[in-house]
Amino acid sequence: MSSVAVLTQESFAEHRSGLVPQQIKVATLNSEEESDPPTYKDAFPPLPEKSACLENAQEPAGAWSNKIRPIKASVITQVFHVPLEERKYKDMNQFGEGEQAKICLEIMQRTGAHLELSLAKDQGLSIMVSGKLDAVMKARKDIVARLQTQASATVAIPKEHHRFVIGKNGEKLQDLELKTATKIQIPRPDDASNQIRITGTKEGIEKARHEVLLISAEQDKRAVERLEVEKAFHPFIAGPYNRLVGEIMQETGTRINIPPPSVNRTEIVFTGEKEQLAQAVARIKKIYEEKKKKTTTIAVEVKKSQHKYVIGPKGNSLQEILERTGVSVEIPPSDSISETVILRGEPEKLGQALTEVYAKANSFTVSSVSAPSWLHRFIIGKKGQNLAKITQQMPKVHIEFTEGEDKITLEGPTEDVNVAQEQIEAMVKDLITRMDYVEINVDHKFHRHLIGKSGANINRIKDQYKVSVRIPPDSEKSNLIRIEGDPQGVQQAKRELLELASRMVENSYSISVPIFKQFHKNIIGKGGANIKKIREESNTKIDLPAENSNSETIIITGKRANCEAARSRILSIQKDLANIAEVEVSIPARLHNSLIGTKGRLIRSIMEECGGVHIHFPVEGSGSDTVVIRGPASDVEKAKKQLLHLAEEKQTKSFTVDIRAKPEYHKFLIGKGGGKIRKVRDNTGARIIFPTAEDKDQDLITIIGKEDAVREAQKELEALIQNLDNVVEDCMLVDPKHHRHFVIRRGQVLREIAEEYGGVMVSFPRSGTQSDKVTLKGAKDCVEAAKKRIQEIIEDLVVNLCLYFFLSCCVPLPTHRSVMGPKGSRIQQITRDYNVQIKFPDREENPVHSVEPQVQENGDDAGDGRDTKDTDPGSPRRCDIIIISGRKEKCEAAKEALEALVPVTIEVEVPFDLHRYIIGQKGSGIRKMMDEFEVNIHVPAPELQSDVIAITGLAANLDRAKAGLLERVKELQAEQEDRALRSFKLSVTVDPKYHPKIIGRKGAVITQIRLEHDVNIQFPDKDDGNQPQDQITITGYEKNTEAARDAILKIVGELEQMVSEDVPLDHRVHARIIGARGKAIRKIMDEFKVDIRFPQSGAPDPNCVTVTGLPENVEEAIDHILNLEEEYLADVVDSEALQVYMKPPAHEESKAPSKGFVVRDAPWTASSSEKAPDMSSSEEFPSFGAQVAPKTLPWGPKR
Fold first, then answer.
1. Segment 826-833 long-range contacts (CB within 8 Å, at least 24 positions apart)
2. Nearest-angstrom CA–CA distance, 636 and 611
3. Pairwise CA distance, residues 1064 & 1122, whole Å
4. Is the pLDDT of residue 815 over 60?
5. 945 backbone φψ class: left, alpha, beta (φ>0; ψ -120 to 50)
6. CB of 607 within 8 A of CB of 614?
7. Which of 296, 611, 776, 975 is the most buried (most CB within 10 A)?
8. How far apart are CA 1164 and CA 110, in angstroms?
9. Nearest to 294 by CA among 207, 248, 233, 382
10. What angle do CA 823, 825, 827 make, to 5 degrees?
11. What coarse category fits the chief subcellular location reported for this protein (predicted)?
12. Global pTM exceeds 0.70
């Protein structure tokens, strides 16, 4: 008789949820009558065998849930160090390979953390672990266990304290193991031993031991004492190799926990019997007090690189010094930049300890080998093979390569370093004889093209020719590319790189094409069609100036022939669009540069004078004499005459002479307003060109003309320059009351005199000396001219005549600001031109009308004593009056110049309804006009309903601004008329049931009609009960609206021919027919050209499906759907039959609880010693959604 086991249906369903449907085999059961239950193997078939792949073989039992990890804290990174002596795998050839790499890969796969390994200078292993906090801690523990040599130690604590170390559910123990990266084994409860075994690294063992003892001490309240002892005295209390504290612990039976050096704590914890504990504390205090009194400290500087030699392996050197001398040596932490080592001990023993410290530090030596930096990678070899040969023979020698330095540094024991140095020197000598390098010059703008996308080009060359190529970064702006390697490979790589560079140079040819600004949009074309076509067909890059730029030049870049073809295409477009004449003029090529002038100034002046024509000279070096003039016919003819006249003049005056003069003499030679140089030109007929600010050679003056004229001009200029070179010193008398005028504003007047008169130096006496002697030093002519100028200034100051002049305006401040110009530039120009002083009134906070001031001219009486209250009330305000000071005739001239700067206002009639269009979006339209015409345009506020727009500005600009505004008005009126024509509305009556078909899927049909006929089509709002639901409104041009109406009526006509039929279709197959995201039903509708509508949820008849279309299409679609229903319904029936065994019928759920699912021959019934599975246990019945942690035994393995 077979045994049976009972499971709840919930557990059974949960277990079956992870099985493949084909594996479920269930015997047919009748819910009303009982039959034999199925066997355990039938109800729970075994899972298929795992794949034999390595990855799956390495996964733990719960690997399928490994990808679902709980969300923890953000990603963290930890870095720790494994010293060379503690590394388990020390083979340098296997770094990054072999068993060590496999272990790291396994750890990353198991924990999900990311590992990065690197070798430190001392051959220790630096490991960076990144990931979630728990993953990092687990990975760190695994790394320490598998990559670092393990040690073990035991710590004894009372048996009753073990449970506190374990913690609730073993959490405390697990946390302690993760934190210290150790394995802690605690005896089982039935074991009488109190020894806890700790396995791990030395540092981890110390930390774990410390933490365990702290936990025990905290629990032993009867005999625990903490003693604060300075960290510096801990080594004396512990003694060499911890012998002293061990003796005290043995003698007193007290546990003494001294924090290890890596733990930054000062308290020492004592645990034990109270009397014995007190003895131990007293002895420790005594040692502490004695050492505190007797010891002293000295600080010495030891190179940071030598600290590790002082410490020794596992700190043995420090313990050895402490044992021999009784002196403690404190080394700064490795992450500190300090090089100070502190020795603490009795004064008479410090000397011996210091000697030993230096002996340890100098036990290793540092040497260097000269080797070009480009050879370093060849010395190292592929994957460090060459270097590994040396380090294997002498593992204690550390070899360091510094990038960019021509040396190699060796560090280690003296004998080993000497041997390694000889080997490396021999290697360097050999490499120099058979390796080579070369540097090529390639313009840095081509470097990124040589490198290629993601370094494709340069990497291919490196791999192909086995060379190293160094391309400088963009920031260096260097053209030198360095190639290193085998001589043959270097030459091949050089050849290929130069070929690539030459092709790039060929493709970088550039020409400029001047095109009138108004034709740029035609060259671009609608949506950029024209310019795109030209670019593609000519295979060139074409750059047009920005729309707001004043430039008319289009830049074409590419191969020369392609650029010329693109240029011809662009010019032909311009020629077709306007009455553009083109004339070719033959001028000898040798005259082209002289006709163009310095930086194109001469030719630009001709182009501007002749209405902006374009003059195109052939490329320099082409040998062509043809100059092309392009533009309006009349302007082209005018430019042709001027150009030929200038060329003829250049041919007859082809003699040129260069002379040199200091730049500070140039202004004096030119003279005020160009008077002196004009006089030379008139006398000789030669043309004299002074250097511009952009010219590199500022001393060079060029004379052009007929030879005799040039010689005469040269003679006059050289005479002037010679006089300027004769430096003299002279003095003059100036009343001290006028000195301030010359030195104020940081000596601006003196600087102007120096610039104007050949750099003459003028020295005024110091302030407060009351001396009237002024010294002048410089060229004789310059000194005399400067004295004359100073005398004129003094006369002006003495005369000090003032002419008062006022400007009457409604808004004084804006008007004055306009007169001043940007940063006062206009006023500064007037003061310089007329040598006057101009004073603007101060701004009044509460301006009131004031009387006209008394006007004083030429010393006239300043008034006749009349009361100011009797003045004309219409007189200007004081804040409107600008005062001009200077000589009378110059004041009058300055007054006229100021009046010319006073802005004038005119009014223009513009219909009010156009104002908002003139202003434009966010004022962009009106700003553009104001910038273009340099005026201020004031549009009245909307509430005024005024048609008058005021334009304020200089009289010269007002006419252009008015014409531009009226032109804009005409454009807007034309747009208004066009909008009126586009506002024609037409209504079409269409049955609402046809609206969705007219709109189309996602509006495709109606959008096509709108775009094709350029109209707006509005459908009625379904939520608006007052709006007729059968009216469709079409807006646009009348002709277009009628065409759109006809298109809609055509669709309606086609729809009216369609029929709709309802088909009963079992609702259980609707989802199968519709398909994923409606893909299947759309395919059916497209195939039969019908529309199929399924009922919505909650519909009275869930089986009713509507098919709409032409009669013959509807019949075919219905037949197809019914065939699908028959096919899918069979699957549905089979599925429902299977569900009977998976879940009880709904009417039985409300009855008594189910007995559960019964199986025969269960494994737990085979032996009476095995108990039935615990269905509430997540371990015996795991969920497939999350990984189940195996039950751990904190007391260690069973014995």
1. 826/901, 830/894, 830/897, 830/898, 831/894, 833/894, 833/897
2. 9
3. 9
4. yes
5. left
6. yes
7. 776
8. 33
9. 233
10. 115
11. cytoplasm
12. no
Per-residue burial over 268-300, b if 16 or more Cβ lie within 10 Å, else e, is bbbbbeeebbbbbbebbeebbeebeeebeeeee
pLDDT (0 to 100) of residue 856: 41
The residues with which 882 forms a beta bridge, in sequence order, are 805
pLDDT at 522: 76
> Which tens digit of pLDDT belongs to each residue from 749-794?
888 887 777 777 888 887 777 788 888 887 777 888 888 888 888 7
Cβ(891)–Cβ(836) below 8 Å: yes
Higher pLDDT, 91 or 55: 91
CA–CA dist 625, 81 (Å, integer):
78
pLDDT bracket for residue 615 (50, 70, 90): confident
Question: What SS3 string covers 810-833?
Answer: CCHHHHHHHHHCHHHHHHHHHHHH
The C-alpha atoms of residue 930 and residue 968 are separated, in whole angstroms, by 13
- Give pLDDT tens digits for 482-501: 888 788 888 888 888 888 88
Q: Locate 704 and state its tokens.
A: 């052009």
The CB-side HSE value for 197 (13 A sphere, CA atoms) comes to 12
Query: What contacts 1166, CB < 8 A, 6 or more positions away?
Result: none
Provide the sign of the torsion angle of the four alpha carbons 1125, 1130, 1131, 1133, taken in this order. positive
Q: Nearest-5° angle of CA 252, CA 254, CA 256?
A: 125
CA dihedral 641, 647, 652, 654 (to 10 degrees): 160
State residue 886's pLDDT score.
72
d(CA 140, CA 835): 85
If you write DSSP's letter for every residue of 182-215 in order, what string do you get?
-EEE---TT----EEEEEE-HHHHHHHHHHHHHH
Which tens digit of pLDDT belongs to each residue from 990-1020? Answer: 888 888 888 887 888 889 888 888 899 988 8
Nearest to 269 by CA among 260, 1041, 774: 260
Per residue in 1092-1107, pLDDT (tens digit) is 989 988 888 889 999 9
When pLDDT is cut at 50, 70 and 90, the band that residue 607 belongs to is confident
